[in-house]
Write a structure and sequence with these properties.
About 80% of the residues lie in helices and about 0% in strands. The chain has helices spanning about 1-10, 15-30, 35-50, 50-75, 80-100, 105-135, 140-175, 180-200, 220-240, 245-250, 255-265, 265-280, 285-305, 310-345, 350-380, 380-395, 400-405. α2 packs parallel to α7 (about 140-175), α3 crosses α10 and α7 (about 140-175) runs antiparallel to α12 (about 265-280). About 50% of the residues are buried.
């Protein structure tokens, strides 16, 4: 066992330094993302008992991302990419702090905190995507995203469990006078510390900014338009599945301790499988990995709607824990390969496509969040929590045909 681990360590060091630094940075920041994704939603539900506010936060977050992508493109002409990347990570702690300082959770305060988090995500993802594009190639991207998904899945086990137990114990054992908001503030301080560490690590890499060229365009090659369609379908699920688990747990189970435990179930197995996929899978296998992830997500949505109980939530979460990283490990290499091909055809800055891709995701996120808000407002929250996922799961299956068409394209 030890020999295998040593061998994997040596394999890791065969890859370029920039790729390794980026992976280590993302490993540290992966400890932060589960807190942002899961426990902000739980915090809002605990203090407001309104699922719509959770979706408003998410919608504000997603609205800030494309705006920041564009701002980031202009700032890259003057500021080093590593600094902007660091700034994005640090802003996530600022957003959580803004949330904790609100005396009353209302749509305005929630929206502002969500917008700040959107700015954070925008700086983080815009620069992360470009650096991933620059430090990898099509032959090693399966390994890169397999290892990155392994990090995110593993931390998705450890972090929600530890944080969930901590918050649950605060309530149960009356730590800090039983005030769970104090526990959330301690978690927020931990987020700040981790973002500082990851910001320091990223500066060890010798990363180069994109070329200072025009990056805003409105007409694109047909292959890129297909990629935008795939991005919109991906965004449909992103608009809801990030916060859906927290809303379902808090509504049907009612405890962050369970939220952390449910996340942990099966995720270690998922992490190992993903690492093996990254090491062994070839580019030709991406469509099969992608299809399986989509089918798994659709299955989980039907189980949740059919049972709509604590058991249904647990089974849905098990499907989601496996499906999300499977989709990412296949989707991102497809996206970056298309960027490589279309940038060469149209002779444009690669950041052009990173920005434009985010607009495709945003359109899907708007539709996904809007679907839930409309259902919750005019039919009822329970109906929305049951059937919005089913509709999104079915629509997402169209991604299989779009992705296959892109992969088989002769361009």
């Amino acid at each position: 066992m030890l020999k295998k681990l040593v061998n994997e360590y040596r394999v890791f060091y065969t890859y370029p330094k920039g790729m390794r630094i980026l992976l280590i940075t993302n490993l540290i920041y992966s400890l932060v993302l589960p807190i942002i994704e899961m426990f902000i939603g739980a915090y809002i539900m605990r203090n407001s008992h309104e699922a719509k506010l959770v979706v408003i936060f998410q919608l504000a977050l997603y609205s800030g991302i494309p705006l920041t992508f564009a701002i980031n493109g202009f700032l890259l002409r003057k500021i080093k990419i590593a600094w902007l990347y660091s700034f994005g990570m640090l802003l996530s702690g600022v957003s959580m702090s803004a949330m904790m300082m609100l005396h009353e959770l209302d749509a305005t305060g929630i929206g502002l905190a969500g917008l700040i988090m959107g700015l954070s995500y925008g700086f983080f993802w815009a620069n992360r995507d470009f650096l991933a594009l620059e430090t990898t190639n099509d032959n090693n991207r399966n390994y890169y995203y397999g290892l990155e998904s392994f990090f995110y899945t593993l931390t998705g086990v450890i972090v929600p469990y530890v944080v969930g137990v901590f918050i649950g114990a605060t309530d149960e054992h009356h730590w800090f006078g039983g005030n769970t908001n104090v526990a959330y503030r301690i978690v927020t301080a931990s987020v700040f510390l981790l973002t500082i560490i990851s910001s320091i690590v990223v500066h060890r890499g010798e990363f180069v900014n994109p070329k200072q060229e025009r990056f805003i365009y409105f007409r694109f090659h047909i292959l890129w338009r297909k990629m935008l369609g795939l991005a919109t379908l991906k965004g449909l699920a992103q608009g809801y599945i990030v916060t859906a688990p927290a809303m379902l747990i808090m509504k049907l189970v009612g405890n962050e301790d369970v939220l952390g435990t449910v996340q942990a179930i099966g995720a270690i197995f998922s992490a190992i499988v993903l690492y093996l996929i990254g090491r062994m899978a070839k580019p030709k296998h991406r469509i099969y990995i992608f299809s399986f992830g989509l089918l798994l997500f659709a299955t989980g949505s039907f189980i949740n709607a059919g049972l709509y109980s604590s058991l249904g939530v647990i089974l849905f979460m098990l499907c989601l824990v496996m499906a999300r990283p499977l989709l990412d490990v296949a989707y991102f290499p497809i996206q970056l390969k298309v960027i490589d091909r279309v940038a060469a055809i149209e002779k444009r800055n690669q950041f052009t496509y990173i920005l434009n891709h985010e607009l495709g995701l945003y359109l899907g996120r708007l539709i996904g969040c809007g679907l839930f808000i409309l259902m919750a407002s005019y039919i009822g929250e329970d109906f929305a929590l049951k059937y919005a996922l089913v509709i999104i799961g079915l629509l997402q299956l169209l991604s299989i045909f779009v992705a296959k068409n892109i992969i088989n394209s002769k361009y």
